[in-house]
Each structure stands twice: as C-alpha cells, then as structure tokens.
Amino acid sequence: MQNIVQENQIYRFQILMELYKTSNSDMDFIANIQELASNVGISNMAFQAAYKYLYMHELIRMHPSMATSGTGSQTQYQASITHQGMKVVEEVFKYQHKATEYFPPYREMMR
User: Fold this and answer.
1) Could you tell me if 71 and 81 are in contact, meaning their C-beta atoms sit under 8 angstroms apart?
2) Cβ(53)–Cβ(11) under 8 Å?
C-alpha cells in the first residue's frame, strides 16, 4: 500500500513540477495540464486523481474551458500554478532529503 501512496505522490509532483517549469513559475500562465501529464508519461486515470488533489489543496487554479471537435465537446484541463504551488515545488528542492507536507523527499521520488 505504501508503494501506491508514494506512486500517487510522485505523479502529483511530476504534474506540478511540469506546470512550474512550463510556466516559468508565473501564476498567470495557463497550460493544459493533462497534456503536460501525458508528456511525462502519466496515464489518464492517474492524471484525474492527481488533478483533483492538486486543485483541492490549492496548488493549482483551474481555468475551465471546453474544446469542440467532430465528436462533440470535451473538457480541457486548463490550470495555472498558485503561489502555494510554487512554494511547495521550491520546498521540495530546497530540502531534497526531507519529506514535505505533500511529497516524499525529492531523492526518493527520483529513484
């Protein structure tokens, strides 16, 4: 069970870190974070759970939008990083050997 918990935490961090990097730590930058998650190899199911977690803990801010295609409308997961989200990412790197409130130590996540 511990492996599942840590795996979920790693997915969350990877998404938040990609948003941090892509936005250049700009809270006004809006990105499709489902696309960012896909770029780092996170499945859609893992993305959905991570997205909800990051939003509920106010690490990201949602910017709802819909895209239309020949088959209908689908949700676009537009989001920006929050001030709290930036602090959390930076804390992970500042204390690489120490767990944070949201994530395990960076050294453990990168194994």
Assistant:
1) no
2) no
Q: What is the DSSP letter of 104?
A: -
Classify domain 1-108 at the CATH topology level. Answer: Arc Repressor Mutant, subunit A (1.10.10)
Q: Are 81 and 25 in contact (CB under 8 A)?
A: yes
Signed CA dihedral, 111, 105, 44, 73: sign only: negative
Tokens of 20: 């941090």
- The whole-chain average pLDDT of the chain stands at 89
Neighbours of 17 (CB within 10 A): 21
* pTM, 2 dp: 0.87
Tokens of 106: 């960076």
